[in-house]
Amino acid sequence: TIQIDENSDYGSTIDFKWTNLSKESRQLNSSVYIFNKVRIEASKKSGFLPDLSGKRQTIATDINGKQNWEDIKTFFNKPTHEGPYLQETNPQVTFAGFDSHYFLTAFIPQTKDNKVHQLVIDKTKEVHSSYNSCLFTIKNTIDQGIVSPGGTRTFKLKSWTGPKSQKLMTNFSPNLTEAIDLGWFSAICHVFFSALEFLYKFLGNWGLSIIAFTAILKILLYPLAKSSAVSMHRMKKHQPMLNSIKEKYKDNPQRQQQETMKFMREHKVNPFKGCLPMLPTIPIFIACWRTLQSSVELRQAPFGLWLHDLSAADPYYITPILGGALMLIQQKMTPTTGMDKTQANMMLIMPVMFTFVMLTMPSGVVLYSLTNTAITFLQQQWLNKKLDKATA
């Protein structure tokens, strides 16, 4: 008996019932299979950019509360003489299936003591094509013991075949949302997506929601930005004196260090105070990145103008180049207090490297990065003017 989930149309509950119609007791082992013919595109060996496609194909499992994503390519590349790959597990399986970044086909066992077999049945190279393919099978089995004549056994299973939507998956089976690979900061990612979804209800555009969300986040983190700017401004103010100490005791490194530390204590100057307030923003930035990269809601979602799909890269590279240029201007206008010329030049290389990475990223991620950089730049200019007037 198969019952389709009315709230999503992607989930289903399957109830199996066996009756022993023979006159002898029989051993019953029940199995459910998921078949998937996977096409694996060969990596690009040349071109303007490396192959950084987000279409990762994996076997996704949750066993004893531990999630794992294993690339299907690793199975395909195993030598043929090794035979079919078999992995049998006896612990509690929450889900197991095929993950293709935005979509998932998986079963969710509803009974304990399941065994999961991952089996490559066939590996082929398609003629006149850059694709390899393999017929992959995931089998869920359960030993239901001896069934006496006229006896029955039941077996219940849930399955999901569709987009990895947090809302739909949570309503169908709460643990299924763990199939969305959000990394170490998954708890923060879920909160961020809820905030984005809330903004989308009012704005009706995921791109505008990303911009609004980024702006709100920067406002909430403003105290940290201000603390960092004040510390850096103070360091800039006392830098000439620190340079004179460095020059005065250049032949005596130990005395130079002692006098520098003494000066810093007397004037309450610490170069690390400019960086420490910004450390909490790192996990927030990573969480935003992972949220936008993994949200199926951005797939084929238009923003406007030339950006017709926020899950695809900017076709004309306008937003990543604009973000890189703005980041470069910001780097040049940021005080390089305490840095030598080599370090300062290295900092200027970072925006160029960041731009190349952004060229192949989903435009939703790039839009977040561009908005974040623009607001950071404006905040920095405003704080610098305010601090300059305060010390004039």
Outline the structure in words:
With 392 residues, this protein is an alpha+beta fold. The protein is built from 10 helices and 10 strands. The chain has helices at residues 72-76, 166-172, 186-203, 206-220, 222-248, 253-267, 281-294, 318-333, 341-358, 363-390; strands spanning 2-4, 11-19, 26-41, 58-63, 66-71, 93-99, 103-109, 115-125, 131-147, 152-163. The strands form 2 sheets. The protein has a 7-stranded antiparallel beta sheet with strand order 1-2-10-7-6-4-5. Strands 3-9-8 form a 3-stranded antiparallel beta sheet. A hairpin with a 5-residue loop joins strand 8 and strand 9 (131-147). Helix 4 packs parallel to helix 10 and helix 8 (318-333) packs parallel to helix 10. It is elongated.
* Run of helices and strands: EEEEEHEEEEEHHHHHHHHH
Specify the number of helices: 10
- Helix percentage range: 40-55%
Low-confidence stretches: 43-54, 80-84
Kindly name the structural category.
Answer: alpha+beta
- Amino- and carboxy-terminal Cα gap: 79 Å
What is the CA-based Rg, rounded?
28 Å
What layout of secondary structure does this protein have?
Layout: E1 2-4, E2 11-19, E3 26-41, E4 58-63, E5 66-71, H1 72-76, E6 93-99, E7 103-109, E8 115-125, E9 131-147, E10 152-163, H2 166-172, H3 186-203, H4 206-220, H5 222-248, H6 253-267, H7 281-294, H8 318-333, H9 341-358, H10 363-390
Antiparallel strand pairs: 1-2, 2-10, 3-9, 4-5, 4-6, 6-7, 7-10, 8-9
Helix pairs in contact: 3-4, 3-7, 4-10, 5-6, 5-10, 8-9, 8-10
